Amino acid sequence: MKATADKVNFKKSESGQMTLGFLFATVLLIGTAMLISALTMAFTFTEVIQYISFSGSRAYLSADVDVQTQQQAAQAQVLNLLKKLPFISGARENGWILVQPQGANDYKNYATARGANPDPRNQFLGYQLIVALPLLTFKIPLLSAAVTPPADEENVTVTISSFLGREPTQQECEAFNNGAYQALLQKPAYQQATGRVSAESYEAVNDNGC
Fold first, then answer.
1. Does pLDDT of 4 surpass 60?
2. In what order do the strands lie in the sheet with 98-106?
3. Distance in angstroms (rounded) separating the CA atoms of residues 209 and 83
4. What percent of the chain is modeled with pLDDT above 70?
């Protein structure tokens, strides 16, 4: 006896493929829009923080009593702007950006390590901040992360610097003038012309600079 199996005919249908394609395209468009928006905000944040670093460097540039006072003025300016600027303060409160002020200092080693000319005439005195951008590490549905941070870092991080130099302080000017007078006292021609002049008879007078 021979058994026969009935053939089952499946009806082919492509009615659901358009829906799947539409859903995938929608997710892709939304993800792309989110990425562009995040990049736009990140570039805007870094531009504003670049201005903050410039303001700190400008405060560090101005002459003062000593170097510590110049550094304190720069730090106070930067912290005030980070707190008072609504755009930046809101982003920090929401965790979109993380700002680490590095302070006002001489960043010659940082600059030369990145290819800057080590000529002593090239000065890298100013203010620097390190900015992490967690807003770039979100994940796009059905896809991977929007921006992949470096392997050894949790977030995308940038270093923002502004180098304007630094004017001499009052202490430095007084030390320079006193040293110049001491060197003058050692000149034989000066001693012969005026006789031995005691150091107590000299007083340095600064005219708003060295």
1. no
2. 98-106, 125-133, 156-163
3. 34
4. 79
